Amino acid sequence: MLFTVGGSGQALAQQVKNLPVVRAVASTTATSVPAAAANAATLVSADAAVAREAGWLRKSGWPLYALVDKFSAGAPLTDEANCIAVAVYHEARGESVEGQLAVAQVIMNRAASGKYPASWCGVVKQPWQFSFVRNGQFPSVDESSAAWRKALGVTRLAVASAVTSVPKECLWYHANYVAPRWSNNLQRVEKIGAHIFYRS
Q1: Which of 8, 10, 34, 123: CA 20 to 30 A from 97?
Q2: What is the pTM of this model?
Q3: DSSP letters of 8-34?
Q4: pLDDT one-digit tens code per residue, 2-22
């Protein structure tokens, strides 16, 4: 008999020789899947918490620069979000927080558009798209600088969809001191600081 009501686990293990193996496999599966799910859930809940708090503060009258300052510290960014922060830092660190947020949103809009790579890092590292990227590599970032902290705050707000600066259809921008030919075929959305933003 394989199962006896009230029998000891040791007696059962002696009767079913593979029980320790089954127990080990079940234990490995049970611990590895929830760990991955927990990490994903933590990231989603962190973004939701930022969105919730930023939304409440915005309704209470906080300006964007104060929100960026508040969220310049927080949970570490994912690798994908870090690509956005690096792009904001290199592409727009001299711009207003509205302009930096617009750059972050263009990257996210491109990834969601189906016209560009589907990941944020893929968008930023795509050849000939962002002038600071060289052969798919990023230059260094001064992580002790106020500009980097600002880029982190902008990125946390952008990733959480807590504040918007440009519409989802906005996929392109350029500095106002250049006039690329490709912009002739696009509809201008707005100018924020030194950048002009477009949609098709």
Answers
A1: 123
A2: 0.75
A3: -HHHHHHHSTTHHHHHHHHHHHHHHHH
A4: 433 444 434 333 443 443 433
